[in-house]
Please model this.
Amino acid sequence: MNNKYRKLLSRESILVTLFISLWCNLLSGQTAMINVQSRHLTSLNGKWQVMVDPGDIGGWKQFWIERKPQKKTDFFEYSFDGAPELNVPGDFNSQMCELSFYEGSVWYRKLFNVFQKKNARLFLHFGAVNYIADVYLNGQKLGSHEGGFTPFQFEITGKVKDGDNSIIVKVDNRRLENGIPGRGYDWLNYGGITREVNIIETGNTYVDDYSIQLKKGSLNDVLGWIQLNGVSAQQKIKVKIPELNIVYETMTNDVGFAKVEFSARFKLWSPDSPKLYKVIVESETDSISDEIGFRCIEVQGNKVLLNKKPIFLKAVNIHEENPLKKARAYSVEDAKLLLNSAKELGCNLVRLAHYPHNENTIKEAEKMGLMVWSEIPVYQHIQFSDSLVPKKMETMLKEMIRRDKNRAAVIAWSLSNETYSGTSNRNNALVELTKKCREMDSTRLICHVMNTQSYVKNEFNVSDTLYKYSDLISINEYIGWYDPWQGKPSDTKWKVAFPDKPIFISEFGGEALYGNKNVSSDEASSWSEEYQEQIYKNQIEMFGTIPNLCGVCPWILFDYKSLGRMQPVYQKGYNRKGLISDKGEKKKAWYIMNEYFKQK
Ligand code: GCB
Model:
């Protein structure tokens, strides 16, 4: 065990972590328990009544109190009774045409029935709410959560009444100067209760969190831990893998923590063989079951190795949008639509841009044998010098890793996309975040995506010092679209400040409107399929010149909605860099990319 890991597992660090998480919980919702799907759930999905509140009057009129007329002269100019309904999970923009581009407050209410058992604990769990959620139960505020793409929960034991209860959530998806993402980004700001809502029932002490993955660099040794939550902290623990006849036994300490360490001859997870094992984590008071894969991902010299063998990352960028429904994706069906298309293109990796996607997507990708690149929305214009921003980045990172750390498919945590080296405090904040990420999970690649390179006289100069802290040199470049070619693609030269690291082209491409064919292949303003196709042909020629190339990732699989893309004839509110249109039609460039991936 390396020192870093030993430090992570020490009792002091656990106490510090518990203290920090308690402190964070005062600011945001409680950190959510993991593996919600295998718990005792009552779903609150379905229709919720809503009041749209563009003028923010709900705050001073105290919508959460739900006042009703008491005497004949009383009236109130708001009410959830008789209000329109929205589906949860689901974004509000795609469900009411007057909310298509709405960024503001919407109040949601759900009435539900519950009976609390003796010795049981109840939690109200949200998969994600974009962007700020203020949550009330029966007129009392439970708390708030900031961050649109990660889960949070509130314990409601003793706060619910037997019988009828009411939950009210104020959702606000307004952009914030010190939000993450900040004010500017190139995707639709879908607001609402976008993922599932559940009431989770547990015993007095339950298995809150666990990490069961291979130790960094090993193909056989599991190194992990279990964390209980509740009064009976010291318990006997079993970790069982029935298919391998493994029953590992240990004991949690006085803060409910136990280290897990055992070895086995696993059939390893890989895109060719996405093997998952049923794993049961059992305490004296709880039992939880998971499907876990075991694999080893590392960078050695200038190569990415999966299970000790070099692998070329055949990737594609995906936004969490169902192009056919024109709505935020959240379901297994949505995931299958996006991921099957990535598979058909020939991919072995999906870059889930630019925020943590829903759990269904990660789990489906894992079953299909697609590796996952997962990122937090530290995107372009982030106010790194704002005193709250480092804490917000860390919280989002922590929530992303906590939820998905047992997913073998996830091979990379990406901490930033296209931040600017001149932004005050950028390096400081991101270097700190990288260190924290390594402490939270040192088993995966940790990356920063940048576009700070120069491209002059057919030479790329890649020199951003932040790459020192990134396992890959991950470059976004749009030569042929935003930047014209400076010479023959096959003559491109490269000057890279960290010449021993693998290079990943995390974005490239250009726009075309599907069906706009036989127009012109040498004018960008034609928005033709031929122009886009030519970009892809040239890029592929250029890829041959890149030292240590470990993978490429076109921007993007499907055309997607974006407010900044308003060219009235060709874009009409869509970023048209998709290899496939928003109606599912393949453009010419798709075939070029598909052929390249077949050759690789
Ligand atoms: C980028 C961004 C991506 C954009 C893309 C574009 O560099 O990372 O989010 O949408 O460019 O289409 O310009």
